[in-house]
Specification:
By secondary structure, the chain is α/β, with parallel strands linked by helices. The chain has a single domain, classed as NAD(P)-binding Rossmann-like Domain (Rossmann fold, 3-Layer(aba) Sandwich), CATH 3.40.50.720. It is 33% helix and 16% strand. The strands form four sheets. A seven-stranded parallel β-sheet has the order 3-2-1-4-5-6-11, sandwiched between helices. Helix 1 links the parallel strand 1 and strand 2. Helix 5 packs across helix 9. The longest helix has 22 residues. Bound molecules: nicotinamide-adenine-dinucleotide. The site of nicotinamide-adenine-dinucleotide has 26 residues, from helix 1 and strand 5.
């Protein structure tokens, strides 16, 4: 279990009354127009924060945040996180979420994906250093690669292929964690790092390419449900409201090392597909396709640290979360797909 680097010490690291004090704080959320970021912004605004959302709208959508247009505590900065971030006035907290998260999207332009993770981390850390802000990194279970142990705890160093199609994302996120570590130790920047496991919920794009959105959209449209490999590979699925609660607790804590956030419930892809079929009443068939390269066989978080130090555990069962997600996708079906134009590779000079 956790070695020195992961030594959390003893006792809770989160205020006993669970109060997260955000009233009047100025909070920057990069990637705030995306799936997770838009839910986070809603919680932050609901708790009285001033929120700046920085996003280049490459995989995010204006419709995810347009409800805040008249709110004078909300500002949108349309900017790439790879460019230096200049903000006048105070910034108390930064949540760095800017990065495409779905494999088909981050693989369209792998160099840009890597730059987004690394240059983005550098820019938010420089900003945090200048402003004296606390800064949170949305890291990922992908730092564990195709893991040899299950469940994965934070001290596990992972089995990542540096030379494969997923490496731009996995290694970009690993390098970002290193930058967070080094800014903390070298410059005293106050950091938080969440290693996020598969999360789902309303506002995922229907063409997102991740398994929940794929299965639900295919079932609702009566199309074949695509199972990669024999469908026995497992994933755990965390409902987005649970994840955002974990973000806020981690940010309000004093835990400056990576913490897993995810739902330890483990399901095979066949089980997930069957649940989706039952809930939608769809007559879609299950069809098998070859397993993509470097697709992890198994994914399940060990959340002992989040529970002990943050008093956090997921509360939404997959069945309930799927009901809410299916309702979202049913309403989305007639609408245009998510914007992907700016994800196209940059033109050669
Ligand atoms: N959803 C998950 O299951 C999951 C799992 C692990 C980690 N994460 C991490 O959480 C974060 C949010 O994921 P999500 O599921 O909401 O993805 P998403 O694609 O919906 O959101 C990402 C947001 O970042 C923006 N963005 C991308 N590149 C940018 C750039 N260069 N400059 C500015 N903005 C940029 C996009 O427009 C989008 O609004 C990501 O960092 C992702 O790696 C998510």
């Amino acid at each position: 279990m956790p070695g020195d680097f992961m030594n959390f010490g003893s006792g809770p690291h989160f205020a006993a009354d669970n109060t997260i004090k955000l009233m009047g704080k100025s909070v920057l959320v990069t990637g705030g127009a995306g799936f997770v970021g838009s839910h986070l912004i809603e919680r932050l605004l609901g708790q009285g924060a001033q929120v700046i959302c920085l996003d280049n709208l490459s995989t995010g959508r204006l419709s995810n945040i347009s409800r805040h247009a008249g709110n004078d505590r909300f500002t949108l900065m349309r900017q790439d996180v790879c460019d230096p971030i200049l903000i006048a006035g105070a910034v108390d907290e930064i949540f760095n979420l800017a990065c495409p998260a779905s494999p088909p999207k981050y693989q369209i332009d792998p160099v840009r994906t890597f730059k987004t993770s690394v240059f983005g981390a550098m820019n938010v850390l420089e900003l945090a250093r200048r402003k004296g802000a606390r800064v949170f990194q949305a890291s990922t279970s992908e730092v564990y690669g195709d893991p040899e142990i299950s469940p994965q705890h934070e001290a596990y160093r992972g089995a990542v292929n540096t030379f494969g199609p997923r490496a731009c994302y996995d290694e970009g996120k690993r390098a970002a964690e290193t930058l967070f570590h080094d800014f903390h130790h070298q410059y005293g920047v106050d950091i938080r790092i969440a290693r996020i496991f598969n999360t789902y919920g309303p506002r995922m794009c229907k063409d997102d390419g991740r398994v929940v959105s794929n299965f639900v959209t295919q079932a609702l449209m009566g199309r074949d449900i695509t199972l990669y490999g024999d469908g026995s590979q497992t994933r755990s699925f965390c409902y987005v409201d649970d994840l955002v609660e974990g973000f806020l607790r981690l940010m309000a804590s004093d835990v400056a090392v990576p913490v897993n956030l995810g739902n330890p419930g483990e399901f095979t892809m066949v089980e997930l597909a069957q649940m989706v079929l039952d809930k939608t009443g769809s007559s879609s068939r299950l069809v098998r396709r070859p397993l993509p390269k470097d697709d992890p066989r198994q994914r399940r978080p060990d959340i002992t640290q989040a529970t002990k130090k943050l008093g956090w555990a997921p509360t939404v069962a997959l069945s309930d979360g799927l009901d809410r997600t299916i309702a979202h996708f049913a309403a989305e079906l007639g609408r245009p797909s998510c914007q992907t134009a700016t994800l196209m590779p940059e033109a050669a000079e």
